[in-house]
Design brief:
about 220 residues, alpha+beta, Inorganic Pyrophosphatase, 5-stranded mixed β-barrel, two-stranded antiparallel ribbon, about 25% helix, globular
Length: about 220
């Protein structure tokens, strides 16, 4: 009989799932979804998932005074592709809007302080900001942490205070701005929408993900 020290670890058990591709969107999607948190409000650098390795990396320092006012991350197994871009075009009456080729971003409200990212949480989407960045759909969904004692009962964006929404809008409209720059802002929030539209975006982004990644897996599989 082998000693414990002689046993080799099972790589399948001990390896970490890729937060974008290896974690489920959640059995209750689109009403309840998993979210991978990259940043918390106290972070002084912008953390972002490395799409290849799945590890959290420093994208850049927070150059100016803006700090993300909520937990911030993305929904696994979503993709802002053709369907999300077309939805943005249709809802804003704009032409040629395309998805930004990223997972769907999400802001998560919770009463309790969370001190670091690189975690998974279960959340309930209640709305979103239809953000357009350089002609690309870059939706920022807004959700509440499931069972949160303060925000957990919120069902729709109408439950949010205007001040909270203004704080989120200000962050996303200004965190890339360079002081004294002559360049006009190319980021805009075309619409604030509620829970029903948020669920639609999640569903479309899930379908975009399947088109982008599942079809590739199927086509690369050997014929039986």
């Amino acid at each position: 009989m082998k000693k414990k020290s002689d046993l080799k670890p099972d790589r399948a058990i001990h390896s970490k799932a890729h937060p974008w591709h290896g974690v489920s969107i959640g059995a209750g999607s689109p009403s309840t979804v998993n979210a991978y948190i990259e940043m918390v409000p106290t972070d002084t650098v912008k953390y972002e998932i490395d799409k290849v390795s799945g590890h959290l990396k420093i994208d850049r320092p927070q150059t100016y005074s803006n700090f993300c006012p909520t937990l911030y991350g993305f929904i696994p197994q979503t993709y802002s592709g053709d369907r999300v871009g077309e939805r943005c075009s249709r809802q804003t009456n704009r032409k040629n809007i395309r998805g930004d080729d990223d997972p769907i971003d999400i802001c998560v409200l919770t009463e309790r302080p969370v001190t670091h990212g690189d975690i998974l949480v279960t959340v309930i989407p209640i709305g979103g900001l239809r953000l357009i960045d350089h002609g690309e759909a870059d939706d920022k969904l807004i959700a509440v942490l499931e069972n949160d004692s303060l925000f957990g009962e919120w069902k729709d964006i109408s439950d949010c205070s205007f001040k909270l929404l203004d704080r989120l809008k200000h962050y996303f409209l200004t965190y890339k701005q360079i002081p004294n720059s002559s360049d006009l802002p190319k980021v805009e929030i075309a619409e604030v929408y509620g829970a029903e539209e948020a669920r639609t975006i999640i569903q479309l982004a899930s379908e975009d993900y399947n088109d982008k990644f599942r079809s590739r897996e199927t086509s690369s599989s050997p014929a039986s």
